[in-house]
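Lecture 7 notes: from sequence to structure.
We start with the chain below.
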Amino acid sequence: MVFWAGILVAAAFAWLAIKSGFYQTWAFVFNIIMSVYLAISLGPVVVDALPVAGESTFSIILTVAAIATASFLILYGISYIFFTSQFNTSFPKVFDIIGAGFLGFLAGLLIWSFASLLVFMTPIAKSNSLKNIGFTSQFKQANISYICWWCNLVNKVVSPEADNYSCEDEINETLNKIEGEEVKETTGRAETVDPNDAETTSPAEEPLGNANQVDTGGG
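Predicted structure tokens for the same chain:
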């Protein structure tokens, strides 16, 4: 079900891309790819640098989502001011339709994969209800592979001599941080209940027989 939902999202972006044209779509897809790349690569760095960004599970997720959103808005503003609003390039109609639709479809899949990855970062991803609709480990790995294909492609273009970058390692590092925070939160909730308090018997819980016992000794 989730897989076909992603196909529908990608098809919707392809339809919007055809209406916008290849030139506009190319700028949009470039901004999406760079935003996801920055979110994946800068997410662990920001979490380590800012303690408030990694103080809880949802703080880490919001940090990654905020980096992607802010990066897209900045890049979209730059591309609109200097390129798309200033110039317009015409292409043959067949190429304009096919090329724009193809790029829009790929961008839709990337957006859906990134959104699904954010869902997998949340604790509710382990619930049976989400697993029943398709949020399985196989679907998770497929999303990571598709995201990393784009991120590795960008890294080869930006820094072709850098061999130490691994998108999979960056994502796994973020997921490990989230799992660590979940363990801390679970442990913290368990420690709030003192087991000694549960074993202590209050005076009101004393057996009534002891309180009502009458001394029948001599006298």
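Points to note: Confidence is low (pLDDT under 50) at residues 200-206, 210-216. Residues 2-187 form one domain.
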